[in-house]
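Here is a tokenized protein:
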Amino acid sequence: MENIDKSQLKINKNNCPIREVLDILGGKWAFSIVYSLLDGKKRFKELERSIEGINTRMLVKELKSMEENKILIREAFATIPPTVEYSLTEKGKKLEPILAELYKWGKEFVH
């Protein structure tokens, strides 16, 4: 993992990359959604069932936000009833190693 050179880390409250990332992925469910989609495309109900504790309204809200931020792609199909599938963009797939590191940190420090 790349070490951060703290002398070059200039955290400006108006332009902080960490704050910007948290604005995009700071929702309670964002990483759960990404984790679920790492396996590949999922329909809405599959996604909802794969995330314990999330309600439909919150899932819709998170998915819209993540689509706007180009973390995932929403594909709608003209079927009856309508079919919608979600998948990660390349940008979203790049979150996998970050999730792995958060998982390791959690196993070590959160009990």
Observations:
- The chain has one domain: 17-109.
- Strands lie at 42-43, 72-77, 83-88.
- The chain has a mean pLDDT of 90.
